[in-house]
Amino acid sequence: MIAQWLEIKPFDTLFFRGGEPMEAGETHEAGVPIFPPVPETIIGALRTAILAQKGIDPERLKPLPEDQDLDPENLPLWGTPKRPGFSITGPLLKANGVVLFPAPASWFYNGALGETLTVYEARPLEPQEALPVKLSRSKALWVTKPPEEMEPLLGRFWLTRRALENTESFKLKVACSLEEISEDESLAVPFNLLLKTEERVGIARDNRFRVVKTGHLYAARHLRLASGVALLVGLDKPLCSSHLKEEGVFQLGGEGRLVRYRLIKENPQLPTTNNGRWLAISPLSFSKAQSASILDVPYASGKLIRVAGFDLRTGFHKPARSYFPVGAVFFTDKDKGLCELIPF
């Protein structure tokens, strides 16, 4: 259950990356940007913002045991150095005042990109429809009467709420501009209308002498949201205004990119249907999915993403972890209690 929603707008660009090396001599590129970022990235940024707004020196965390609460009386939701006291869902995208969701990995279109898309849904085979062949997966998904050429919607489009409430085979109108996006229509919005990538060149610095390191250049791909597009992040606990101000500024992602946030009073509308499908609207940790036993059901997903990170408290790298990307779909009638998933 989501208690509050934050709207987040970057001042300039955003920079999220995975676990690719950035050592001199290994690569000159910082890898493909990861969007949306994993929940830990946003949670870490919010916890750092809480410390800044409450005037708490981060050095205070270093001697604190991993499982000891920072301030259980005044900041119970901050949690311990190892485990936060809150979770998030999203980020979703908001364009022209309309909330957009990642396209399900189980949806495909006929490959012809025009004013409309004919969409085909892959669904689990019923036991009586089992194939008399040996497959690599015991729980196969099947598209009924597929066309000769199909392309996945995943990664190419974001959808309105009404679009998500469709099933089987149907048509979606393709938005040609942000001004066309409406809450009342089943729309597919091309991803490149919402977000662009920008090539940036960076340098490495010698912190001891405060000079540039010779030959240490790297190229990075930053992300720029289109004008009028914002991120929406759901909080399962009410951080505002006991822990965070209702609006403010904090750093999000790599290179300390600044964003402005505000608490929105009206919660965004989520899909109202439940057809035994659960959509990942946040990257879902593979280990968390295993613990919730959701890998026992049929599912569709894009390629897993690998994300590392840096622990500011210990001054050392975090181990790399695997995540299902947004848009992953799990077919089950049971609620597994994961805030990264919504029924549709």
TrEMBL record:
Tell me which InterPro entries the record gives.
CRISPR-assoc_protein_Cmr3 (IPR019117)
Which superkingdom? Answer: Bacteria
**What name does this protein carry?**
Type III-B CRISPR module-associated protein Cmr3
